[in-house]
Amino acid sequence: MHKIAIVCLSVFAACSICVASPNASLGPQILMAALDCMKAHPISISDILAIKNTLKIPDTKNANCFLACVLKRIGLLNDEGKFDTEKVYASVPLVFSNKDDDLAHKSKRVVDACTSVNTDSVSDGNKGCERARLAFNCLVQNAPKFGLSFKL
């Protein structure tokens, strides 16, 4: 079952790279991080499909910690489990897609709307599992408010 989940995750991540913005240089890094994080925080095929199809993180410890692991490995969460806004500012245009020329400005506004997750109370401290979920949900919820779409 674990091997099937890794294969599905690999296909999902590869497809995500294909549909991401033209400057999808973060894609291979996400794929490698995801494959590595699957070992420490295995998630099921249904969890992977739920994330892909609904942009919702299943409410399980492994799903939250898997997301935190990936975000830490690509530098969007720091070692304290906090949303690293400077790195997010640099990376968000690789995840959002939009036809407007002001993508960077809109992306920054989405990130600004989500920086409050760093002050939200979480019970897992610097692990970042809960904060990763908060950050992901915030980005997904706020992107449309600024005319952006969120792709996986």
From TrEMBL:
It comes from the Eukaryota. GO terms for cellular component: extracellular space. Keywords: Secreted, Signal. PROSITE patterns: PROKAR_LIPOPROTEIN. Transmembrane segments: none annotated. GO terms for molecular function: odorant binding. One of its GO terms (biological process) is sensory perception of smell. Residues 1-20 form the signal peptide. This is Odorant binding protein/PBP-general odorant binding protein. The lineage of its organism: Eukaryota, Metazoa, Ecdysozoa, Arthropoda, Hexapoda.
